[in-house]
Amino acid sequence: MAKSDYLGLPYIVSVILAIIPFTSWILGAITRFLDGKILAGIIRLIGLGFILWIVDLILMIVSKHILRLLPI
């Protein structure tokens, strides 16, 4: 089974979790923290959670990865 971006979970599980706004918001931040991108994780936790939820949902379905907007 193919792995996706949310903590290496299977693709289907990640898509289901991406549909739920709160879990997508938190798992997106955790994923960015685990990537070593502290600023990107903090931005996901504050203000931009809803906007990134929509983008992450679309990208998770299409490319199996979340948005990587900030390389820092």
Strand content: under 5%
Coarse structural class: mainly alpha
Major sheet size, sense and barrel closure: none
Order of helices and strands: HHHH
State the helicity in percent bands. Answer: 55-70%
Broad shape: globular
Distance between the termini: 30 Å
Count of helical regions: 4
Quantity of strands, as a count = 0
What does this structure look like?
With 72 residues, the chain is mainly α. The protein has helices at 11-19, 21-34, 38-45, 49-63. It has four helices and no strands. Helices cover 64% and strands 0% of the residues. The model has no long low-confidence stretch (mean pLDDT 80). Helix 2 (21-34) runs antiparallel to helix 3 (38-45).
Write the layout of secondary structure elements.
Elements: H1 11-19, H2 21-34, H3 38-45, H4 49-63
Helix pairs in contact: 1-4, 2-3, 2-4
What's this, in brief?
The chain is mainly α.
